[in-house]
Amino acid sequence: MTTEDVEKELLHYIREEFLWGDENNELTVTTPLLEWGIIDSLRTALLLTWARERYGVHVSPAEVNSRNFRNVRCIAALVTAEIDQHAGEEIVR
After folding, report:
1. What number of helices (H) and strands (E) belong to the chain?
2. Angle CA(64)–CA(73)–CA(12) in degrees, nearest 5?
3. How many CB atoms are closer than 10 A to CB 81?
4. Dihedral of CA 82/39/73/62: which sign?
5. What is the CATH number of the domain that holds 67?
6. DSSP code for 31
7. What letter does residue 23 receive in the DSSP assignment?
8. What tens digit of pLDDT does each residue of 35-62 get?
9. Which residue ranges does the record assign to the Carrier domain (predicted)?
10. Is residue 29 scored above 50 in pLDDT?
11. How far is CA 63 from CA 15, 23, 49, 78, in A?
12. Orientation angle between helical segments 72-92 and 3-18, nearest 10 degrees
């Protein structure tokens, strides 16, 4: 799965769950999620649960920070890195 695929799915999830559809399509991959109040601690937890269920990845608490959750592009990069790491662990086994 590419980072772009994850970005698209994240945009859809955030629009539907946190922005009630985002009918004006104002959310982009570079929208500042924290600054605009789109995500907070509760929504971050919901997003992490969704990512774990959707992609089978676990993001460590150390990686949950304002830099990694600045925007959809940053979150997608983090999730993609976790997917790739998990895939590498599966190959080693």
Report:
1. 3, 0
2. 95
3. 15
4. negative
5. 1.10.1200.10
6. S
7. T
8. 999 999 999 999 999 999 999 999 999 9
9. 5-83
10. yes
11. 23, 31, 14, 8
12. 130
Residue 70 contacts residue 34 (beta carbons within 8 Å): yes
What predicted TM-score, i.e. pTM, was given to this entire model?
Answer: 0.88
Using the structure block, give the residue that is written with the tokens 């980072």. 3
Report H helices in the chain: 3-18, 41-55, 72-92
DSSP label of 19 = S
Task: Tell me how far apart the alpha carbons of residues 86 and 28 are, in angstroms, rounded to a whole number.
Answer: 27
Who contacts 20 (Cβ-Cβ below 8 Å, separation ≥6)?
A: none
* Count of structural domains, the chain: 1
> Is 59 in contact with 48 (CB distance < 8 Å)?
yes
Q: 13, 50 in Cβ contact below 8 A?
A: yes
Note down the domain range covering 68: 3-91
Tokens (6 digits) for 2:
């590419």
